[in-house]
Design a protein that fits this description.
alpha+beta, four-stranded antiparallel β-sheet, DNA polymerase, domain 1, MutS, DNA mismatch repair protein, domain I, Dna Ligase, domain 1, disordered C terminus, 357 residues, five-stranded mixed β-sheet
Length: 357
């Protein structure tokens, strides 16, 4: 049998808020909320000082302001956050080429091969955290484990600015007392379903009958049982190909469908830029809408010729308004434009030729 993998999950601490506090000394030690003010805004990030008041990411900004009247609201600067994220990635790359980013502020690293010569995954994680602190004046938490699932659990164990190691021979015992909601992918709805059937802790799932789990939760039941036993065979996948990219905007006031064209054009341009330098071709255009009563709808179009510019993307997205099918008096609070089903350029040309055959 091959030896266990050595996986590190690095998670930057309150990343957006920490960057703001680093770059503006007047914000240090104060409750910082990264968000635009307003009824429609949501929190992008909150400093640990703000979290003590119950402020959390994705919370409505007005609620955050009620919870923490002294909070300092800072509008997000994603260009700056992306630049810092690239600096963090450069530090990772000194230790391994096997890096799988999950977002701007977290990533998996496979350090099974000790290319940096530090002798252990734990030493490598410590070196990465020390470099982030010394070079970027930021802190990161890390988890070290034999697989991705356990490493992600471990990185949250001693936040902020902490390190936790889960060893292969004690994994199941270490995680047994954790609530099932700590399992990645188990949201509030699934957590309630699990708890209704008596599965409150990860150890409850480990001790459960697999057949019963599959009966109630399908194939996901088997996956839950494996994770509860500390089993996860998914490898770190560096440089994952682009699968989708999108942008969306929430309006200050609800708008009718015919008034959305300026926003759709602006979002199409932003989404097109968001493709980056990928040579992969997007096959499907998505228009997302949220009505004034919070109903979310989406419409998709896979054209014969994929969009080759922001203007072409905008034209396709605008055409999708004809497929919305809601009453004309409907008002919308949010619109989004996306691209999905990216394929290699050669595959896209073959598909286009088939349409024309």
């Amino acid at each position: 049998m091959s030896p266990p993998r050595k996986i590190i999950h690095v998670d930057m601490d309150a990343f957006y808020a920490s960057v703001e506090q680093r770059d503006d000394p007047s914000l240090r030690g104060r409750p910082v909320v990264v968000a635009w003010r307003g009824m429609r805004s949501v929190v992008c990030a909150a400093s640990y000082e703000a979290r003590r008041f119950g402020v959390r990411s994705a919370m409505p900004a007005v609620r955050a302001e009620r919870l923490c009247p002294e909070a300092v609201f800072v509008p997000p600067d994603f260009t700056r956050y992306r630049a810092v994220s690239r600096q963090v990635r450069e530090i990772f790359a000194r230790h391994t080429a096997l890096i799988e980013p999950l977002s701007l502020d977290e990533a998996y690293l496979d350090v099974t091969a000790d290319t940096s010569g530090l002798g252990s995954a734990t030493a490598t994680a410590e070196a990465i955290r020390a470099a982030i602190r010394a070079e970027l004046q930021l802190t990161a938490s890390a988890g070290v484990a034999p697989n991705k699932f356990l490493a992600k659990l471990a990185s949250d164990w001693r936040k902020p600015d902490g390190l936790f190691v889960i060893r292969p021979d004690s994994a199941a015992a270490v995680i047994a007392s954790q609530p099932v909601g700590r399992i990645p992918g188990v949201g509030q709805v699934m957590q309630r379903r699990l708890e209704t059937r008596g599965y409150h802790r990860i150890g409850d799932l480990a001790a459960a009958d697999v057949t019963e789990l599959v009966q109630h939760f399908g194939r996901y039941g088997r996956r839950l049982h494996e994770l509860a036993l500390g089993i996860d065979d998914h490898p770190v996948k560096p440089d994952r190909p682009v699968q989708s990219v999108s942008s969306e905007d929430t309006f200050a006031e609800d708008l009718p469908l015919e008034a959305l064209e300026p926003a759709i054009r602006a979002l199409a341009a932003k989404t097109w830029r968001g493709r980056g330098k990928t040579a992969r071709v997007p096959r499907t255009v998505v228009l997302k809408l949220k009505t004034a009563d919070f109903r979310i709808i989406s419409r998709h179009l896979t054209p014969e010729r994929p969009p080759d510019s922001a203007d072409a993307l905008a034209a396709y997205a605008l055409s999708l308004r004809l497929r919305v099918g809601l009453p004309s008096e409907t008002r919308y609070r949010l619109v989004g434009v996306g691209l999905t089903q990216f394929t290699d350029a050669d595959d896209a040309r073959v598909q286009a030729d088939l349409f024309l055959a």
